[in-house]
C-alpha cells in the first residue's frame, strides 16, 4: 500500500513525516515573579553571619556568655552533690558550642569537654572551691544551705570567665585546635574579678 491508497484521515502529512512539531518554549519563570527590592537583598546579606562585623560578633558572644553564666548559676542551685557539677558542665558545653557557631568555628563535643575541663583546671583555686561547694551539699541541713549559697555564685563566675576566654581566643582568629588554657590564666583571673563587680 502506498500513500495514495490510504484513506484521507490516516494519510501522513508533511508535518507527520517530519516528526512532531517542537513544543513552544515555556515562558520564563522570572517573568511571573515580582522583582525583589534591592533593599531586601542588601538586608539579607547584612544579616548573614559571614557578613557580621567583628564587633557585633563579640557583642553577641558576650551576651551569650552572660546568659549562660546565669543558667550556670541556676544549675548550681541543684541540691544534689555532683549532679549540680555535671549540670554546670553541660551548660558550659552548650555555651562553647554556641560561641563556636557565632564565630563559625567547627565544634567537637569531645574536644569541647577536654578544653573546658583543662580551662577549669587552670583556675585551680576556683575549680576546687566549686567541687568543695558541690560535695558539701551532701552534709545534711548545714551543707545544703552553704552549698546553695556558694555553688551558684562560683559556677556563674567560672562559666563567665571560661566563656570570655574562648570569646577572646576566637576574636584573635584562634580555633578549638590551638586553644591553650595556660595562656589565658591571667585573662580568666581578670574576667572573674570583673564578674564579681
> What's the alpha carbon Rg, rounded to whole Å?
32 Å
Query: Beta-sheet strand percentage?
Result: under 5%
Instruction: Characterize the main sheet.
Output: none
Outline the low-pLDDT stretches.
38-45
Give the number of helices: 8
Strand element count: 0
In N-to-C order, the SSE pattern is HHHHHHHH
Please bin the fraction of helical residues.
Answer: 55-70%
Structural class: mainly alpha
Compute the separation of the termini in Å: 105 Å
Instruction: State the shape.
Output: elongated
| Average pLDDT rating | 75
Total number of distinct structural domains: 1
What does this structure look like?
This protein is mostly helical. The chain has one domain (54-196). 64% of the residues lie in helices and 0% in strands. It has eight helices and no strands. It has helices at 14-18, 38-47, 54-75, 83-102, 109-122, 124-136, 142-171, 185-196. The radius of gyration is 32 Å and the shape is elongated. It starts with 13 loop residues before the first helix and ends with a helix. The model is unreliable at 38-45 (pLDDT under 50).
Amino acid at each position: 500500500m502506498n500513500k495514495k491508497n490510504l484513506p484521507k484521515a490516516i494519510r501522513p502529512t508533511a508535518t507527520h513525516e517530519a516528526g512532531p512539531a517542537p513544543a513552544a518554549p515555556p515562558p520564563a519563570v522570572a517573568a511571573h515573579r515580582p522583582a525583589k527590592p534591592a533593599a531586601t537583598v542588601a538586608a539579607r546579606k547584612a544579616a548573614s553571619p559571614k557578613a557580621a562585623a567583628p564587633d557585633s560578633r563579640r557583642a553577641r558572644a558576650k551576651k551569650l556568655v552572660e546568659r549562660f553564666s546565669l543558667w550556670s548559676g541556676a544549675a548550681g542551685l541543684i541540691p544534689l552533690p555532683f549532679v549540680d557539677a555535671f549540670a554546670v558542665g553541660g551548660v558550659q558545653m552548650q555555651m562553647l558550642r554556641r560561641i563556636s557557631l557565632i564565630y563559625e568555628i567547627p565544634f567537637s563535643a569531645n574536644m569541647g569537654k577536654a578544653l573546658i575541663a583543662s580551662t577549669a583546671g587552670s583556675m585551680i583555686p576556683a575549680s576546687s572551691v566549686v567541687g568543695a561547694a558541690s560535695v558539701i551539699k551532701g552534709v545534711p541541713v548545714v551543707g545544703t544551705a552553704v552549698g546553695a549559697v556558694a555553688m551558684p555564685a562560683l559556677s556563674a563566675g567560672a562559666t563567665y570567665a571560661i566563656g570570655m576566654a574562648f570569646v577572646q581566643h576566637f576574636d584573635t582568629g584562634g580555633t578549638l585546635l590551638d586553644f591553650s588554657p595556660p595562656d589565658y590564666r591571667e585573662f580568666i583571673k581578670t574576667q572573674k574579678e570583673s564578674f564579681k563587680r
